[in-house]
Amino acid sequence: MTNEYVLEMRGISKAFPGVKALNDMQFQLKKGEIHALMGENGAGKSTFIKIITGVHQPTEGEMLLLGEKVSFQNPKQAQQQGIAAIYQHVTSYPDLSVAENIFMNHEVRHPVWKTLNWREMHKQARQLLRELGSSLDPKTQMNTLSVAQQQIVEIAKAISTKAKIIIMDEPTAALTARESEELYRITEKLRDEGTSIIFISHRFEDMYRLASRVTVLRDSNYIGTWDVEDISNEKLIVAMVGREINQIFPDKKTSAGETVLDVKNLSKLGEFDDISFSIKSGEILGMTGLVGAGRTEVCQAIFGITAFDKGEILLSGSSIRNKNPQEAMDNGIGYLAEDRLDQGLLVDWSIEKNITLANLTDLSTLTWIHRDKEKRQAKEFGEKVHIKATSIFDSVNSLSGGNQQKVAVAKLLTKDLKVILLDEPTKGVDIGAKAAIYEIVQNLAEAGYAVLFVSSEMPEILGMSDRILVMKEGRIAADFVNRGITQEMILEAAMGEEQVQEKSG
Amino acid sequence: MEQKKQTYQPRTLETNLPFSWKRLFFQWEWMLLLILVAVLLLGSYVSPYFLNYPSLRDGTMVFLDKALIVFPMAMIMIMRDIDISVGSTVALSSVVMATLYTSAGLPMEVAIIACLATGAICGLINGLLIVKFKELSAVIVTLGTMILYRGIAYIILEDQAAGGFPEWFGFFGWGYVFGIPFLLIVFAVLAVVFGIVLHKTTFGRKVFAIGNNPTASRFSGIKVDKVKVIVFMLAGLLAAVTAIFLTSRMGSTRPNIATMYELDIIAMAALGGVSTAGGKGRVLGVVIAVFIIGYLQYGLGLINLPSQMFLIIVGALLILSVAIPKLGGMIKRK
Amino acid sequence: MKIKTENLEMEKKNPLALFYQFRELGLFFFIVILCIGVQLRNPSFLTGENILDMATNTSILVILALGMMIVLITRGIDLSIGAVIALSGMLTAQLVAANPSVNPFLCLLIGTVIGALCGMVIGVLVAKVGLLPIIATLALMNIFRGLTFLVSDGEWVSSYQMSESFVEIATGTFLGLNHLIWIAVLFCLVFFYFLNYTRTGRQIYAVGSNPQSAAVSGIKQGRILFLVYTIMGGLSGLCGVLWVSKFASAQGDTASGYELTVIAACILGGVSIAGGSGKLAGVLLGAILLGILNNALPLLNVSPFWQNGIQGFIILLAVIVNAVVKRRVERTHLLRRAG
Amino acid sequence: SQGAPESSGASGGGESNDGPKKYAFVFKNTGNPYGEKMLDGFESTIKELGGEVILRSPDQPTAEGQIQIIEQLITQKVDVIAVAGNDPDALEPALKKAKDQGIKVLSVDSAVNAASRDIHVNQANPERIGRVQIEAVSEMIDGEGQIAVLSATSQATNQNTWIEWMKKELEKEDYKDIELVKVAYGDDLRDKSVSETEALLKSYPDLKAIIAPTTVGIAAAGKVLTDKGLEGQIALTGLGLPSEMATYIESGVSPWMYLWNPIDVGKGAAYAAYELGEGNITGELGEKVDLRDLGEVEVVEDGEGTQIMLGDPFKFDETNIDEWKDVY
Ligand SMILES: Nc1ncnc2c1ncn2[C@@H]1O[C@H](COP(=O)(O)OP(=O)(O)OP(=O)(O)O)[C@@H](O)[C@H]1O
Ligand SMILES: Nc1ncnc2c1ncn2[C@@H]1O[C@H](COP(=O)(O)OP(=O)(O)OP(=O)(O)O)[C@@H](O)[C@H]1O
Ligand SMILES: [Mg+2]
Ligand SMILES: [Mg+2]
């Protein structure tokens, strides 16, 4: 063939009102390669993707598909050219069925009557999902699915278009090791079938496991492209962050104090069953498990968002039952929501108002808010967590993922808490910000907080926790003290006999 | 973002905005103010009776009664809800008041308190139903109570009218204090109070937060349900206040008073810049909008324009005032 | 994720599943019970004649509810339909009065076109200019209503000015059933097909369910919104003609406030104001419930002064019962998921 | 919501004392042909008499709307206000205010209470209106059987008075076999009037006749009876517009019904208003009012107030309906 590149992007730039999101980007995608795209939050990865898929139009630069110059005015055109994408923020139709989500806008239709052929779609959908190692029923309504399950559906959607180029924007962010493995398998299968794949992730293991080449972005600038073999971890980090991060996980110098939170046989019908654990002050308790294991539900039950059926919660000895988050916070329990954008932040609001939202009573007399006090507090805590912004009045949706997460953390810190429940605090956050968040968490522990650290990423669980809980099907499958624990041991506990099922099924 | 990523090096966050003319002038309220001025000029141009103090003053008494409800309605709309039962609440509270006074022979003061209580209870019921049954939207709940409340008013008064209130009761609807209509004073006071509550207090902040993202608000420890119930109660209470003024103006009441009020009120709030999509709105804008619609109505009335023409003009005004800025934005983007 | 998905599948295999899938179960039972109650009080309720009357009087509501359903699904609302009904009804009636020979089908067509034009105005304002539907339609409600008064100049068009054939539209019967019933049935079938078996139909749900993803999956939202309001307008226009033909009189204040009844029918039927969800069967039930109320309340020979109160109470009761039943169903789901 | 000048460049210019006097007529609501005709009659007559006319009505038939209009009329310094009240008492404060400013007030068609008016122009004697409809029904069903009334809204004061008189008339010995089974309210809405009528037919299978003393109601009832092919079996009478009722009178569904000529009512109101404005009358008991071609009538008492009456309701049947149906 004349040119070795399926897709080539030359000097692509994109400016949003106020932001230069992308600047003179260069990119080449070979046929049948998996090409990793890396960079910090806000580096411009997603924007770049959206330009390829025609969601945004570039302000400068040209785009060649198989050597042909193209420009997409809308996503439809890109789809017709065989480009499919899994977007970062899951873009599903909550009210529609799985099958429909998969086939939306490229439905299977009767050749003549153009009527939708549901039977066929359900058949194909079930087929696709099975290939992805999921036995989801295509008729299930999307909003009953977990984040992970939705992610799988998204992938099925992309594959169903039989695209030549598939783009995955942080597909593993919501996945645990096991689902990630599934995803790796699929991706490689697709590659071997000749599909070219652009793979965005903040997880290094993803890249090393899959990609043959990696392109790095920083501050909306193109830094370079390397063969994965040729570049060392350190060099890559420098390329991404622009400086050395000699140590990602802070070293522990914690001295666990007396027990603060003591959860006894907590149970909720259909969600979790007989959950018991305790956290000491200054201790970081890691909690992992397969997605859907019910970790979020446990946290939310403790935080008083959902009620629980049986069991009790002891806070430094005395039994409490939080009827609502406010009570929980007054009792000294804080919760960092799993879903930043929906549950954590008011994205249209300024950093300032987000930070102070949980603490308005302390900032007001007779409910009258003292703006100066408010500003001071916002500044204080914003700086404490190193939010990367010019002023406290910047709106949260102008921040990148990592910084948004920091705002959410800062909000928690305004209350004087004893226990902090962190649900996937580093989800979709770049390496630099991760290190920062780890450090914050460590500092919290040292400051005497009792920390519950929910995560799906083995390395950080192992790197951060003093003790590790593994949840499975809403029960606690294992409780390790984090000494000489390996990923394998955790996965073993997390899946248990389920692997046998795998083989049999 | 020009600063390099130095995660560990402490960075400072700016805490005061640089002054900007843009921020000062690109505000809905200015647009509204212009419209109001235009309306006043138009009024004085078309009718010699329009632009003089007594006329403008008494003009307010014609439209301000229902306008009292616009404040809580704005709050409700900011919270992405809506209350279409307020008209019926006015009727019911008014009927209750009148019956207690005439039939039950209670003193007027007591009747008035009962009226306020009735309104508040109606609002409370709306609020409770809405938060207890989240799957029901405010629209259907208040639509149900809209029919129910008026229905109760009919059950109480059937085909009768109730009136013959004491002399002093007429003061609410017709009285002046230092030459200013009492109604106007009450409206002004309420405007200030609601302005402060909505923009300066924690309660107002919570209302906006809920309108912006209910889930996140709840996760941040805001008692969303409590706030909602309170606001709907306020709407009921203010409906009762309106009932007092309206009844006083009419000197008697019937179950069919205040029909279709809700739509006028929603229109006022919307023109005032309150977004039914939630999260946005300012009391100042709402106040100006009230006077725009009120005086437009009054002015057109003075030149005896057909009522249908008035319908059309207000409709057009509503669309234009909302559309023009959007169109402007579209052109800019082009 | 196997864990949860598997028992999700089991649920579907469960024989009761189909039963549970019908989400307006509570409403259905409520209606049944209501009918029984009314029947006990007045035996002439469930007679063939009365049922036919009920069906005839509910047909227009059903047709409008279908349109309102797709508007609500796209997160919109249309408050102007009452006014559109009046406008198209008045214009068509005036046409008929002017030349009685005009063909009834032409009348239906003209009315529909007038309505569709009104709908397009809304469509442009919502889809292109980006006004909030509630504001745009609130304003246009005023405008259309005003126009109706202007064109009619306060006069009514009366039955003696209408041709036999025109009045026949809504009074004539086919196979013993009133034309209105047939028209309503026809539209139900068309909508069922449209919503479930055409791409556009599904895109309406998609746009309402998640506009952002609709955008990235290349669905032309503007077009869908425009379409939806045009359809709603067209149906209103059609119903304007039917209305005038049914009552053999066109007034300026025809169907004022009717939009609320239509919206009530939809929401009773489980259409969510938040958009994305709504099933034809539910809406049908909602309309039927209101139809029953309008017909039954006068039959109950309760004091006319109690009618409003009872009606409001029943509507609230209906939605609450429906909600409670839904919760029950959810809970049984959980129970079985827990195994 | 404002009112409607059907014509006359009533920009409201000129002070009240100099220039032509200003006569305002406030009807119940717009878009009601009965009212429009009345306004026409009023307007043309006042014009002849050389006065300036202002015609206003709210778009909804509510007292609130009328109060607003009256306020604006006061501001315009009109000389006379004629009003067809949507509520007899609710307008009192507003009309009192008008009277305090020296404006003459008369109510037409639908009275406001004595305190708030100088005189009431009654389209016809309400007693007669009530009684004559019973007489008619009795004749149609030869003195025996069940009858029902289909009224406007339960709040419509005119209808309520007439129905009172009907009940009084029914107490007479001649009507002992006639039973008034129900008073239903169609709220002057087509759809509600229809379902109410249908309900009547079903709840009272032996129903012999329906009296509908309201234009919308009687037409709706006529439609139902026609569609169900009940002409001859169930008689319909009441008060209706000839235009609306023509079909049903010709088809015999309604052998005959009554109304007065709204144009004449408008005229009468105009003359009365003029006389008041000129100070020729004050509305005292026993005064003679010259209604020109409508003849001269005496001011009689009505409750605490006074009124003039324009004569009996006019009977429309197949003999004369044709000539009237195009008039109003
Ligand atoms: N629609 C938009 N309007 C304005 N600014 C935007 C928009 N989308 C992205 N940006 C800005 O462009 C920059 C790049 O955003 P982008 O989402 O591409 O970063 P990213 O590399 O995907 O980060 P992450 O790893 O967190 O996904 C960020 O500063 C972001 O705030
Ligand atoms: N199969 C399922 N059916 C219905 N709801 C589900 C299913 N799986 C998860 N959910 C719900 O989706 C939400 C998020 O699911 P998720 O898998 O994140 O739960 P989790 O395991 O507690 O969270 P995490 O992602 O931290 O493991 C939870 O409220 C959960 O109840
Ligand atoms: Mg991204
Ligand atoms: Mg979770």
TrEMBL record, chain A:
Residues 7-244, 255-498 form the ABC transporter domain. CDD domains: ABC_Carb_Monos_I, ABC_Carb_Monos_II. GO terms for cellular component: plasma membrane. SUPFAM superfamilies: P-loop containing nucleoside triphosphate hydrolases (SSF52540). The keyword NADP does not apply. Keywords: ATP-binding, Cell membrane, Membrane, Nucleotide-binding, Repeat, Sugar transport, Translocase, Transport. Pfam families: ABC_tran. It is a peripheral membrane protein. This is D-ribose transporter ATP-binding protein. It comes from Terribacillus saccharophilus.
From TrEMBL, chain B:
It is found in: Cell membrane. One of its GO terms (molecular function) is transmembrane transporter activity. Its main location: membrane. It holds the Pfam family BPD_transp_2. It is a multi-pass membrane protein. It comes from the Bacteria. GO terms for cellular component: plasma membrane. Keywords: Cell inner membrane, Cell membrane, Membrane, Transmembrane, Transmembrane helix, Transport. The chain crosses the membrane at residues 30-51, 63-79, 86-104, 110-131, 138-157, 177-198, 227-246, 258-276, 283-303, 309-328. PANTHER family: ABC TRANSPORTER PERMEASE PROTEIN YPHD-RELATED-RELATED, AUTOINDUCER 2 IMPORT SYSTEM PERMEASE PROTEIN LSRD. This is Autoinducer 2 import system permease protein LsrD. It comes from Terribacillus saccharophilus. The lineage of its organism: Bacteria, Bacillati, Bacillota, Bacilli, Bacillales.
Automatic annotation (TrEMBL), chain C:
GO terms for molecular function: transmembrane transporter activity. This is Rhamnose transport system permease protein. It is found in: Cell membrane. The chain crosses the membrane at residues 20-39, 51-72, 79-97, 103-127, 134-152, 172-195, 224-243, 255-273, 280-299, 305-325. It comes from the Bacteria. Its main location: membrane. Keywords: Cell membrane, Membrane, Transmembrane, Transmembrane helix. One of its GO terms (cellular component) is plasma membrane. InterPro entries: ABC_transp_permease. It is a multi-pass membrane protein. Signal peptide: none annotated.
